[in-house]
Amino acid sequence: MELSDESGDKGLLYVELIHLKGGVIMKKTSLMNRVLALLVLLSIFISSVPAMAANDDAVDTPIVNDVYEDSEGSYTYPLSAWNPQWTQSGWIDTDGDGGTALNKKVIRLNWQGDWSNGGITDNKIALKDLGDKLFNSDSGKATYMEFNIKSPWLYNTVRFRPATVSGDTVTGDSTIGEFTYTLNKGEWNKVRFVENAAKNQMDVYVNDTLQTVWKSESLSTCTAMIIDPLTSTKNNVVEDLRVEYLKIGTTTMEAADVEAVQGNGEKETVFHDVYDNEKGTYVYPYNNWKPEWSKAPFITNPDNKGNSLIVNWQGETSASDGTVTDNRILLNNIGEYLYNSDLGNVAYMQMNLEAPYYTGILKFTPNGDTNIGSYIQVFEKGQLYSVKFIADKSKNQLDMYVGDKLVKTWTNESLKDYTSMRIDPLSDTANSEIWFLRVVDLEAGAYVTKPTAIEIANGETAAITEPGGTLQLTATVTPTEASSKEITWSTDNNEVATVSKSGLVTAVGNGKANITATSKYDETIKDSIEITVSGQSTVDKTKLRVLLANQKNGVIAQWEGTQAISDNYAKQNEAALKAIKFEDGSFWGRIQKDGDDWSSVSNVGYAYDSDSQTVKAKINMGNTDWPNTYFGLGSAVSTANVKRIIIGVKSDRDIENFRMWYHSYDEENCDNRFDTVNLKQGFHEYTIDVSASTKWKELSSYNYFQFDYDQTETNLEFAYIRFVDDTYVGRSEDDGNGTWLESGAVNYNPDDTVVDIVLPNGKFFKDPTANPVQASQVKINNQPVKWVLHGGTLGRIRVNLGKLNANADYTISFDGVKDTNDALIEDTFTFKTGGVTFEITSDNKTITTENGTLTLSPKAVKNGVEVEDYSSVVWTVDSANATATVDNDKKLTLTGKMNGNVNVTAYYTLDGVQYKATSTVAVSGQNETTVPTKTIKVMAYGNSILKHEPNESLGWKGNWGMAASSEDKDYIHRLISMLGDKYGKNNVSLVSCKNVSSFESAIQAGTDSTDYSEQLADISAEVKAGQPDIVTVQIGENAGAATEAVYKNALKQFVQTIKTASPNTLVLVTTPFWGGDGKISGAKAVAAEFNLPIANLEQFNTNENKAYEGDGVDANWNEGVKAHPGNVGMEHIAGEMFEQLNKCLTGNDNITYGTKPSAITITNGESAAITTLGGTLQLTTTIAPENAESGILWTTSSETIATVDENGLVTAKNNGTVTITATSKYDDSVKATIEITVSGQNLPTLTFDKNTTDEVTNMPESGEVTAGEVSLAGKYPFRETYTFVGWSLTANGDVVSSVNVSEDTTLYAIWKKATAWTFDRDGYQEGFTVENGFNVEVKDGIFKALETGYSETNILKIKSPKLDINSADYAQLKIKMQNTAFDENTKLGVTIHTTNGDVKSEYAVTTTDQTTYTVSLDNVTGTITGFELVPTNMDATINIDDISFEVKTVDTSKVRLLLADQTTGVQNHWEGTQALATEGNTTPEEYAKRIIKFEDGSWWGWYKNGADATADCKTEYAFDSNSHRMKVNMNVGNADEWANTFYHMDKPVSSATTKNIVIGLNSSRDISDFRVWFYNSSETQDSEQPFKTIDIKKGYHEYTIDVSKPGVKSGEKSDSKVIPWNDHNTYDYLKFDYDDQQGSDVVTNLEFSYIRFVDDTYVGRCEDDGDGTWIENGAVNYNVGNSIVDIVLPNDKHFNKPDVNPIQANQVKINGKSVEWVQSGQTWQRIRVNLGKLESNTKYTISIEGIGYLQGGSIDPITFTTGNTIEYSDIQVLKNGTAVTSLDSVNAGDTIQVKISNLHNNSSYETDLSIIPSIYTASGLLGNVNMNEVKLDGGQTISEKTFEVTVPSDIQNIGKISVFVWSGVAGGNMKPEVSNYYKLTATEQ
Question: By the 8 A CB rule, do 1095 and 1068 touch?
Answer without folding.
Answer: yes
